[in-house]
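hi!! sorry for the late reply, been swamped w classes. u asked for the two structures so here they r. pasted raw, havent cleaned anything up. first the sequence of the first protein and right below it the tokens
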Amino acid sequence: MKKLLLLLLAICAFSAVPVAQKADTTKHKKIISNGRFYGSWGYNHDVYTHSNITIDQPQLNSNFTYENLSAHDRVGWNNLFQVQPTIPQYNYRIGYFFDEKQLWGIEISFDHTKYVVYQGNTAQVKGTLNGRNVDTTIVVDNATLYWQLNNGANWFDLNITRKLPIYSTSDNKFVLYGLVKLGTGPNVPHVSDELFGHWNIGHFQYGGWNVGTEALLRATFFQYAYVEFSNKLVYAWYYGLQVYGGSATVNNGWAEQNFGAYEWIANIGFTFHLGKTAGTNTAR
């Protein structure tokens, strides 16, 4: 599954490069100062690949791996209007189209996704546990493994974007276009876990890197407001995650984990020019 996801990421990345168009002899500035800015907020739903979690606890003479774990998200949409907007799985985007034709852009994105290992499934544990070699099957429960990034797997990304115009009215009151993105950035997860009956001290931390590609359809109304629907593929590498390692006061154990994700996103946003109208692609 992970190899398939990486293949899809590569395919999407190459598809983000636009097909060659007719030669345009008009010279255009590469970067302009009055391009179109946009920002959005929305919510997401995610599915994850199976994954391994490796635990290193030097003080306990333990270094072992939980193998073939499955996980789910926690969308929180059932009470969307009864809690703070940052409780469910949310995301935001801030971007800027910088060329005169307003086709290329740069974007900062944040995806607050939640990763929760299923309880009740079986998993293989291999390695060294409290100085003893182990290779056994366990039932994943609070006595063996409770693992969640419930305050977020938290992917920050810097993306390069390419607009694919589809349709616009003559007055630009309605504009429809696609947008493809490719980006990478750090993970800042909040790890909450219990390893064989021992809780860690949960907190936010830097925890590795991710790479992602995204494709969306955006509809802009009256040149300022828009809605968009997006699909995103992500592969995340987590390492140096602080977990219980024998101390009751500090996290002196470490964990690492890699997994892929497929994300559905719905956003609402706003857009405007930073100054006078730019170039030939004035809507959007």
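now the second protein. again sequence first, tokens right under
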Amino acid sequence: MSSTEVSKAIPGNGNDASAGPPPLGRDAAGNVDLDSVPDVIQWFLDFDQRVAIVKHRNVEEVFQWKQQQSQAAGEQVFAFNRAEDRLAIGIVQALAGHATEPELHNWISQLLNALDSASKANEAVTTAYRLDLQGGGSVVNEAQKIPSARGREDFLINCWIETLCTAEARVLGWLYKEMYGRPYVPESTFPQ
């Protein structure tokens, strides 16, 4: 997904989608009430195809694989029940941890860079090993065509990164526009 797509993240591909996401709540000072963000995230999960893909069984399988790999490697990771839970918490944490426009702008830029790298790597691996990712079968099983364990691991991690960054950038792009009154544009500069 290009940065232009993020800035134009005005969903509308479902029956109740035409109204758009619910409005963000604001406190007395006009700051975004983070308690209103879950409703926005749920709207995207229900009506935006690029975000809803997080709920697909193949994405869930890759996510569960990634969690198991992280735990097996001794990483201290929170065990989420579902991929969509991980997405939602990540979005709320991104807003809480990047509370100014330049900080959120930088975070979205980092997501897009990670997405670009993961997409390019997956495209190369998919071509090199003739992986069938369009057939609807298990991505984890399809990755078995990659001869090295490290290659399989990198591919599956990049699959997760590609999906997560796409979804997170879509939602954060919309939130950015709502919060700051202008779309996210990669080359933006901010007064010091």
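hope this helps!! also noticed smth abt the second:
The chain has a mean pLDDT of 89.
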